[in-house]
Amino acid sequence: MTIEGDYSLFAHLETVYLGCMARRSLIMRNVAEVVEAARGKQIFYFPARHDHWLVQTGDGWSAHVAGAIGVSTDAQASWWGGRGIGTVPHGLIAAYGGDTVKAAALFADRFHGEMNITVLVDFENDSIKTALAVAEALGPKLWGVRLDTSEQLVDRSLIDEMGSFTPVGVNPQLVEKVRRALDQAGFQDVRIVASGGFNATRINEFEALAVPVDAYGVGSSLIRGQNDFTADVVLLEGRPCAKVGRTYSPNPRMERVE
Question: CB-based burial of residue 25 (10 Å sphere; 0-12 exposed, 13-18 middle, 19+ buried)?
């Protein structure tokens, strides 16, 4: 970007526009990478709790422009008049004594019709059992189940299969077992959302293996990375004037804005 004019009129804005460009383009790039990796599958933008709340509006807009299907807070969706989306959270399940089915049923009674009902099923670290119980209880109200097993835990369904693969967290074998169990029980329409430490590289690995994930929830990786911008005076009244190492660089892609 080239800014021309009386320097005294915009010098004080340098930190403002550089910070906006750096932050928003970082979010856009990161989201675009996971959207491309997911090959058309939905990406839910879930990093709100990892950063200061005042950045949510602009971050949410950047994620939306880059292709994220949903954002997790109303603030993130406010610039296009949308609403945040979410899943039945661990906190609500804990509030009902660890009873995922009860929490999910009450959540669905309140919000079915307003949003897709997606339920976390890893509270007891038994994703297959919990997913089947939730699907049976909610029936057609259930849009999907979300696998979010900690990267320090092995889901109970995999205990007898450890040895030939990395069993911790949300892994391809766990997703496949949950998908198979849901299908065999007649819940073919229940979708699987995978979350917990996902980034573009990990999504690419899952897609290359054709893991039956319907959507990915991606959090902190979308606001991480290096994306620096600087500004320099490079011309003075049309003549080159810049510190050593910096120079005016014409760019034919730029469009004039007044």
Answer: middle
Instruction: Report the first-to-last Cα separation within the chain, whole angstroms.
Output: 13
Number of domains, the chain: 2
pLDDT higher than threshold 90 for residue 64: yes
Show the CA angle centred on residue 70, arms to residues 109 and 146, nearest 5°.
60
Q: Tokens 């906006």 map to which residue?
A: 20
Same domain, 94 and 192: yes
Each residue's pLDDT tens digit, 109-155: 999 988 899 999 999 999 999 999 999 999 999 999 999 999 999 99
- Same domain, yes or no: 33 and 58: yes
Per-residue pLDDT tens for 66-104? 999 889 888 999 998 888 888 899 999 999 999 999 999
Q: Tell me how far apart the alpha carbons of residues 248 and 145 are, in angstroms, rounded to a whole number.
A: 53
Q: Is 102 inside a domain boundary?
A: yes
Q: Considering the entire predicted model, what is its pTM? A: 0.87
> Which one, of 144, 172, 148, lies nearest residue 158 by Cα?
172
100 lies in the same domain as 57: no
- Residue-number span of the structural domain to which 96 is assigned: 86-196
Residue 184 and residue 92 in one domain = yes
Q: Which two tokens stand for residue 112?
A: 């079915």
Q: Which DSSP letter does residue 105 get?
A: H
- Inside any domain, residue 59: yes
Domain annotation covers residue 26: yes
Work out the angle between the directed axes of helices 172-184 and 127-138 (0-180°, nearest 10): 40
- pLDDT the model gives residue 161: 87
